[in-house]
Amino acid sequence: MVPLSTPHAHTTWVDGRNTAREMIEAAIGKGFQSIGFSEHGVQDFDPDYCLNREKELAYQEEIKKLRDEYRDRIRVRLGVERDAMGTCRREEYEYAIGSMHYFRDGAYFFAVDSSPEDVANGVRRLFDGDATAMVKAYYASFARFLTDFRPDIIGHFDLPTKFNEKHRLFDENAPAYRDAAFACLDAAKESGGLLEINTGAIARGWRSKPYPSLRILKRWKELGGSVSLASDCHSAEKLDAGYDIALEAARAAGFRSIMALGCGRTLFEEYGIE
Ligand SMILES: [Zn+2]
Ligand SMILES: [Zn+2]
Question: How many CB atoms sit inside 10 A of residue 105's CB?
Answer without folding.
Answer: 10
